[in-house]
Design brief:
five-stranded parallel sheet, about 40% helix, alpha/beta, seven-stranded parallel sheet, elongated
Length: about 350
Amino acid sequence: MGIKVLVVDDSAFMRKIITETISEVDGLSVIGTARNGHDALKSIPLLKPDIVTLDIEMPGLNGLETLEIIKQTFTIPVVMMSSHSGEAVTIEALELGAMDFIEKPVDLKNQSEEFKKEIELKILPLFEKAKEIGQKKEIDKSSVKKEWQKKVPKKVKAIAIGASTGGPKALLHVIQHLPEDLDIPVFIVQHMPKGFTLSFAERLNMKSAVKVVEAKEGMVIEKGTVYLAPGDFHMTIKQNKIALDSTAKILGVRPAVDYLFQSAASLYGSSLVGVILTGMGHDGSVGMGEIKKHGGFTLAQDQETAVVYGMPGNAVKKGVVDEVASLTELSDRINWMIRMRQ
């Protein structure tokens, strides 16, 4: 039967579309549907789904309220089904513990294949996560030397961070713990569609002591500011300014972590710290290699705390990571470097 999915949506039409699309993906099957949050909470213990897709805007018990109860009561991954008008609520859902989100198609005729691909890419890896931990893969913290402080550059002038699936919650943790007197710039690429990155930047800014902005073309880089790459644009750094472009996707993504890391490595050299967080795929490994070549320091989130270990795991396999740490440890290490190496 494969991975069992419970589809929750108040629209009968969308339930049909989502169900049919999921059923077309190898390894996925819809075990049931629910038309609102109350029905979903009744169905979960009866149907025992592996994953829940959850609509955000529903009458009665809305998506956020339903998500909170699911997270309190069950240990089931939840993927939000979001409309383009609900960016801010979607970001809040990720903060509450949703694993990821998928945009509902607006034009079914032209977006059906894209919608199917999104479902395949964002649901299957969540199930793989459980198998990876159960199998205790060969990559773990012991593969990287522990004496990380000795490798940290004498001066840190910038931090570049890359993330994908599970990244919003991980980034919130890291950025929230940055000191108010941060005296270096921080650059972030989070794989996220256009429109959602603005809401995410605003959320990070509201929840943190530091200034967080969605990056814009030509912005002068300032100390103490966190720059988030806008959805659908690659972000690089040129002559102390933000540069954006919409050249072809690499590894299927735009913005790409690799582009940011490579340009930051060229500018900051041995004074750069690169951080790769939870996410599927291989984006970031080439860039981490460039940071290492220029003498910078690299950190990766560990398998236990990553939602998907693709990006950090691949970087570790390639030997371009100086230190592997849990999300909490990683945040502590970043703060130590900021305090001791400015």
